[in-house]
Design brief:
The protein is an alpha+beta fold. Helices cover 38% and strands 15% of the residues. The protein is built from five helices and four strands; from the N terminus they run αααβαββαβ. Strand 2 and strand 3 form a beta hairpin. The longest helix has 15 residues.
Length: 151
């Protein structure tokens, strides 16, 4: 579903990119900041997910800091089978996020696993399931790029 974001949704998405407070009721504190109820905050997040505007909401774990591995991956997916391939790739619990790009390599995702060997094994499994090669781009340097929606 494609639709315009409301100003409140833009503010909420931006705020969710920041560290949520580590308290028993983080949505309650966020609700106070936004002059909403806790239920309204949860409802807006649920709607954004249901409408496909947020594909995932949850913590982001640093796989390497936890002793695991991660890798940026890309695929060149024929447009006519993009949705089918997307569904197959996203079915893997190792896929942290998946983005479509306007480029020959039009599908980009991150694999987060318990080991470097599991990165290769998961990429090979995705190749078997999709019939398409998975290109691996291991990290050379770390960058943090914040995502913001213009309010």
């Amino acid at each position: 579903m494609t639709r315009d974001l409301s100003p409140l949704e833009r503010t909420l998405i931006n705020r969710l990119q920041d560290d949520l407070p580590l308290v028993p009721h983080p949505f309650r504190e966020l609700a106070q900041e936004l002059d909403l109820s806790e239920e309204e905050v949860a409802g807006h997040i649920r709607t954004l997910r249901d409408d496909g505007l947020l594909t995932r909401f949850g913590p982001f774990f640093d796989a390497e800091a936890l002793g695991g591995a991660f890798c940026l991956c890309a695929m060149a997916v024929p447009p006519e089978c993009f949705e089918d391939v997307l569904t197959k790739v996203n079915a893997y619990p190792e896929v942290a996020h998946n983005y479509e790009r306007d480029h020959k390599l039009n599908m980009w995702f991150v694999l987060a696993t318990e080991s470097q060997a599991a990165i290769s094994a998961t990429a090979e499994a995705i190749e078997r399931d999709t019939g398409l090669p998975v290109l691996l781009f291991p990290k050379e340097r770390e960058f943090f790029i914040g995502f913001r929606v213009n309010a």
